[in-house]
Specification:
Helix content is 42%, strand content 24%. With 189 residues, the protein is α/β, with parallel strands linked by helices. The chain has 2 domains: 30 residues; 155 residues, 3-Layer(aba) Sandwich (Glutaredoxin), CATH 3.40.30.10. The termini are far apart.
């Protein structure tokens, strides 16, 4: 009987600590929705197209819990951009799963918006990119067909000096007014 009570108390204690760890940080980060920086990114694939500014989102094709709602919201917002801004701004979806079908990431991104580009990353490139952007990902502990991953949105700008990571949007839903303001500021630079 004592073993059952001890095991129950141990599980209850672990659950309480887990809840505490998940809730307390939100009190200290309330109102923080973006990080501003100027980090050089000597990486291919990002800003290798016609846009000077690119939003970068890491996920995986088929992700319904994290990627789908965010990409749907990004698509709705992107469609509200003027043609002038769309000439400057693109969106890249970088796939974390290294699927066997290398066309899958682009097909997935384009289901949300035909202007979005999905990018296949092989194992080596995936490690380089996730390190440069500090992206976390792993197989889900609950469902091994899913992945847990960082769901931040990254804003990268190209200028005469090269490519720089300028903003990281950490809160969801994304503050599209702030993103729009940041883009306008970068266009004026």
């Amino acid at each position: 009987m004592k073993r059952k009570i001890s095991a129950f108390l141990l599980i209850l204690f672990i659950l309480m600590i887990s809840v505490f760890i998940m809730i307390v940080p939100s009190f200290f980060t309330k109102g923080v929705s973006r990080i501003q920086l100027q980090q050089d990114l000597p990486l291919e694939l990002v800003l290798d197209g016609k846009h000077d500014i690119e939003l970068v989102f890491f996920g995986y094709a088929g992700c319904v819990d994290i990627c789908t709602p965010r990409l749907e919201n990004l698509s709705k917002w992107y469609d509200t951009l003027s043609q002038k801004n769309k000439k400057h701004v693109g969106l890249k979806f970088l796939d974390l799963s290294a699927p066997h079908d290398t066309t899958l990431p682009d097909a997935f991104a384009k289901t949300f918006n035909p202007d979005f580009t999905g990018v296949f990353l092989d194992g080596h490139t995936l490690r380089v990119y996730t390190k440069a952007f500090s992206v976390y990902f792993s197989k889900s502990l609950i469902d091994d067909t899913q992945m847990d991953h960082t769901a931040h949105l990254y804003l990268v700008k190209r200028d005469d000096k090269g490519k720089q990571l300028r903003y990281i949007y950490t809160a969801y839903p994304y503050d599209f007014k702030q993103i729009q303001s940041d883009i306008q500021g970068l266009i004026r630079e």
